[in-house]
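Hello again,

I reread your note about wanting to compare the complex against the isolated chains. To keep things tidy I'm splitting this into two emails, and this first one only covers the full assembly. Below are the input lines as submitted, including protein chains and any nucleic acid or small-molecule components. They are followed by the predicted structure of everything together. The single-chain runs will come separately.
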Amino acid sequence: MSVAVIGGGSWATALVKILSEHPIEIYWWMRKKEDVDHILTYESNPRYASDIHINLSKVKPLTDLQKAVEASSIVFLAVPSAFVKEILLSLDKESYKNKIIVSGIKGMIPQENQLITDYIASTFDVKPENLCIIAGPCHSEEVAMEKKSYLTIGATSEATGKAVADCLSCRYVKSTVSLDLYGIEYAAIMKNIVAIACGITHGLNYGDNFQAVLVSNAMQEIGRFVNALHPSGHRVLCSSAFLGDLLVTSYSQFSRNRTFGNMVGRGYSVKSAQIEMNMIAEGYYAVKCINDINQELSIDMPVIKAVYNILYEKISPATEIKILESKLS
Amino acid sequence: MSVAVIGGGSWATALVKILSEHPIEIYWWMRKKEDVDHILTYESNPRYASDIHINLSKVKPLTDLQKAVEASSIVFLAVPSAFVKEILLSLDKESYKNKIIVSGIKGMIPQENQLITDYIASTFDVKPENLCIIAGPCHSEEVAMEKKSYLTIGATSEATGKAVADCLSCRYVKSTVSLDLYGIEYAAIMKNIVAIACGITHGLNYGDNFQAVLVSNAMQEIGRFVNALHPSGHRVLCSSAFLGDLLVTSYSQFSRNRTFGNMVGRGYSVKSAQIEMNMIAEGYYAVKCINDINQELSIDMPVIKAVYNILYEKISPATEIKILESKLS
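Full-complex prediction:
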């Protein structure tokens, strides 16, 4: 069995590590030839998660996307949402036929405000039952350290979900399947916005009491939004795929969205925070998409609106969060 | 208007501070004459939350419980659950008649496994509509620093709840009323058990990914338990009174239950951890009560059961949490 992992970041590297625990061949695509060469020589990713040892008896790093996809029955996508279109469109539209496509991307297609799975289903020759997403709570840094972690595989087909969950289960990772693909995909996107809010309030010197209220209110916002778009009687907001994913992103020191928010709260401009971090905080793009979608829905989401106002309307963080205070309970 | 605050700990001190923001007289009862004298001389509590300034133009510290209760229309209880019976029974049973009794105690009556509000209603001449509880998320340390915090007042009467919420609202605290008194009281007790679980796993070197899953599963456990005991169609588990309270206790560095669990996870015996901390971790008693109650209900609560097994059945933390790993998802 062969699979492809598309992307050279820390989450892609963690996925490669988990997949390497199985007797499968892993085609690992990344953009830069020099990174491939580094991995082939030093058995580690030069840029991200460098402490993860790459087992070259199973992993084939390469820059040839066509070869990676052609050889594989499952394709894992782990690139920033801003680049996914460009990368996928570089192959013929039929290239993905009969393959299982798994999105590990925690964002939407910018401008179009489309879920990654919706975009793939509508653009390529991929059946909806062959689409999956990976939801946390799972920071790649802790996968690197083999700390016990849990993944939820969102799918519309139990069999497809199970096949992917099996590939992503090992001694230190337990993966389970949920058929609430759309709910989980939206929640995974929106959690990054909440993490930015947590960072902003921390940067403004709000405390643990406030953050607990912020996260509780935000979890309800996510629930209202997802239930409006995709009503479901079986959705459990306090499950790992919803609440757990939100918690790890909002509370962990490893969260880049939280770090980005923290800098904004401390007075950095959005631009300088982005330059300083040298990483893309997905929540920055996500809040624009979710706010756009909500223009029509008009769901009450004060936390998400506050982040939008700070990042896009240039309202001062202190002013905006002061207003938010009275909307929470 | 006069109120009484019963207890000399950090939460009692924080309540005195919040109440002092209003034009009311506060009779502050504590056990030790020397503490009263210290406060009268230095305007601060010598033992806990010493950085809170006590405004003696409004606050009357005293050791005479009868006088404190007699003079007051609202009595706030903020003593460890282990001492509440002894303290309340030191007055005549009619002393509490027509007074609003507000419990800020996060535990149950030991041995009897009774909620504080149930105990008061069944033992004293207090009408159920005159009973309230205070739920977090609100660490006293952040009240001391005047960091924005939120309280939920659980009541069975909207009017009583509102009267208490008004006393406990000020520039840095927003208090709202919930009529789900019993649900909130149970959740406030159970959160301390979860905080011990978080501490234990942290002490065992589990990471943020695991903690997020642990807290998500535990929130569902609390929901199952409370819904079985007091079914309600209106209960929102992701609200501040449930989830927020759980988060602040599970994640905050100020949580004594988490600290206690952490020591147990790192190999301290229960006894030596208690001696070292010199503070009572309410969750230690709570898990015994909840486990007893669940003997009849048999609700699936693996996180709470694991804490019980570690603290009372002397199962090694590493073994018990390893077993727990497979029960979470």
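For quick reference: Chain B touches chain A through 47 residues (CB under 8 Å).

B.
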